[in-house]
Amino acid sequence: MAIWIVLVTVGVVFGFVALAYAYWGLLASLYPDRIHATEVYTIRTDDLWRLRICRYRHERTQGPPVLLVHGGLVNQHNLTSPEGGCMADYLAERGFDCWAIDLRGTRSSIPPFEHHHQEAKMDDYLLHDLPTAIDFIRQKTQFSKVHAIGHSMGGMLLYAYALAFGGDKLMSITTLGAPVGFDSVAPPSQLLVSIARYMPGVMTNLVRGSIPISILLRTSLPNMPVNMRNLHPAMDGGCFYRMTEEPLQHVIGEISHMIRSRTMRMNEDTLDVKAGLAELDVPLFAIFGAKDPLVPLTHGLASFEAIAMKDKRAMVLGKEQGYAVDYSHGDLAYGATGARDVFQPIANWLEDHPITEMVAAGEYIGDEDDVYVTPLRQRERSGLLSGSTYDGDKKARTKTKYPVTVEIEEKTGTVKQRAAKKKPVTKKKATTRKKAVAKKKVVAKKKTVAKKKAVVKKKKAVPKKGKAKLPPSTRSAILGASKELKRLDKKKK
C-alpha cells in the first residue's frame, strides 16, 4: 500500500511539473519579445558589456535627447509599454528624442567572454552603463547635455549619477517613485529573497506565470507594487510578461541590504546617496505615488525638502491632490490617465529646461550592427580575445595562443590590428625544439628509404618487353631435343 502511495505522489508531482512547463511555454509563445522603436543600437561599455539602447522619435525630429532608465527586475518595456500609450511615445509626439536603455543583466544584454548576466551589480549600472549611454546619446545627437528620466531603481541610479559625476552632462533629472534610504519600508521576506538570488529562473517563471492571474483578479504583481485598477487600457499580460526580467543575484542582495539597513550607499560604499542628496545640483522633478509602499510619502517629501537647490519640483499623485485615484508604484509609468497626470507635466518640465549648447560630431565607429565602440584602456587591449585576461590575470594572459592587439585611434576613430610580439625563447624551449626537429628528420629519412624500396620492388615485378627469358634447364632440354631431331633427319636421308 505504501508503494502505491509513493507512486501516486510521484506521478502527481511530475504531472504538475509538466503542466507548469507547458503553461510557461504557452506564455512564451503568446508573448514574444518585440519593440516598436525607430532605431535600435548596441553600445559597448568600457568593461566590454554590450547593451541595447532604442531610439523613439518621429522622423527628422531634432528635439532634445531624453534618456529613459527602467527599474529593477524589469527592462525598457517598463517605460515603452503599451505601444502608443507609453511615456516614450508621448514625449516623441511632443518633439523629444527619447532613448530607452536595457541595463546589463537583462536578456538583451551580452556579457563579455567567460562572463554571465548574474555578475551585474548596482555599481556597474552607475560607473559603466549610464556613462556609456549618456556619452553615446550626446555624440549621436550633438547636444551637450541630456535629460534623464528614471523609474524606481532607475531614479535611484540617476540620484547617484548626479552626485558622483555632477551636472556637466545632465540638463535635468526626473524620478518616478525613486526610493531614498527606504525608511519606513517593510523588509522583504527572506525566503523570497533567497529564491530570487539562488533560483532566479524559478522566480522568473513564477512571476511570469502569475501575471494573467493578477490581471484577472486585479491584484498587485509579485515583483512590483501596482494599482491594478489604474492601468492603461492597452496594458495587457503581454506588456507585463515582456518587461519582466530574471532577478540578479548581486542586485537583489544589495537592495535587500539597503532596505534592512535604511541606507543607500554605492560606488564601493564610498557614495552615501541618502546623505548627499541635499547637495544635489541638477534640476530635479520628483513624482510620488500617494500609496507607493516603496516610497512612503512622508519620507519622500522630507528627502525632497532637504535638497538645498532651488530649481526643483515635487508632485504627488493621489485623491487628496485632486487625482482620480491613488497612484501606487508601477502605475506611475503606465497609469490609466498617465498621459494627463504624468507625461504632460514631465514634457512641460523638459520644455522649461531647454538644452541650448551643442557639441561637435562625436567619434562614432560603426559596423553592420551599429555598434558604438568606446576607447579601450591598455590593459583591456592586451587580451581582448581572452575572458581570463579581462580580469587582469597576467598568468592566464600568457596562455592565449594567438593574441591580437586592437588599437583604437581616439582622433580618427579608426581601428588597427597587429600581431602581438613574439616572446623570447628560453634555453629549455630551444632544446625541446631542436629535439623535435631532429626527430622529424629521422622520420622523414625512414619514409624516403621505404619509398625507394617500394619503387625497386615494383620494377622487378614488371616483365620486360620482348622474348621471355627461359630457365637454363629448360633451354638445355630444348637444345637437346633439337639436336636429336636433326640427327634423325640425317639418318632418314
Concise summary:
With 493 residues, the chain is of the alpha/beta class. The protein is 45% helix and 13% strand.
Number of helices: 18
- Would you tell me the structural class of the helices and strands? alpha/beta
Please name the CATH architecture of the largest domain: 3-Layer(aba) Sandwich
Taking the sheet with the most strands, its summary is: 9 strands, mixed
How many β-strand stretches? 13
Question: How would you characterize this protein structure?
Answer:
The protein is of the alpha/beta class and 493 residues long. The longest helix is centred in the C-terminal third of the chain and has 35 residues. The chain is elongated and about 155 Å long.
Please describe the topology of this protein.
Blueprint (H helix, E strand, L loop, with lengths): L1 H29 L8 E6 L5 E7 L8 E5 L7 H4 L6 H7 L3 E5 L20 H20 L4 E6 L1 H13 L4 E7 L13 H9 L1 H18 L19 H7 L5 H13 L3 E2 L4 E2 H4 L7 E6 L7 H9 L6 E6 L13 H4 L3 H14 L19 E2 L5 H5 L4 H4 L3 H4 L6 E5 L6 E5 L7 H35 L10 H21 L1
Parallel strand pairs: 1-11, 3-4, 3-5, 5-6, 6-9, 9-10
Antiparallel strand pairs: 1-2, 2-4, 7-8, 12-13
Features:
45% helix; 13 strands; alpha/beta; Rossmann fold; 13% strand; 493 residues
